[in-house]
Amino acid sequence: MDNINSGHPFRKAFFLIFLSVLSYVFLDRELLPLIGKPPFRLWKVFSFLIYPPLHLVFWAGAFIIARTKQNHWTLPLFEITVSQCLSIAFARVFKILFGRARPEIFLKKGIYGFHGLEWNHHYHSFPSGHTLTAFTLATSLSYIFPRFRVLFYSLATLLSLSRPLLLDHYLSDVIATASIGMIIASIVHIMTRRIHYETP
Fold first, then answer.
1. pTM exceeding 0.90
2. CA pair distance 177, 155, nearest whole angstrom
């Protein structure tokens, strides 16, 4: 359950941050004309599968059940639940602080980039809450089942790509948010295990 190298998600996260910067400068606006068509219904299904409140309720419920039965899944489910809580809180706060204009605003008014302290939903492109949910969960599950981490990250990537395809976010939003999800889940894992094993 702890075989995965704890430094691995951090290294991958920093690489994704670098890629997101490249996407912000060179790709985000150029991709919009290729995407700006009526979305496939499948993308909406993919997006729903990583809807943050849905996962928070599901994993919190699973944790409560495991805690009641006091079985060996209690600690892993606790990690997942805490990570999901933190990811939702992070997304809510930093969407407002960054104030990044969504793709639809660029297509309609040519407004691009970060504008800071925006309460308007149209300026909440970064971070992507759905992507944060997907990659936080993928990282948490990778610590629990390390041999399946490629599958977890592949699914997270596939589902998260629905967000730019629905014109809710830019590609760079998804890439950068994926790195944040990895970092949040890794920190929760490290701190939880440290506290758990140091407690007499």
1. yes
2. 15
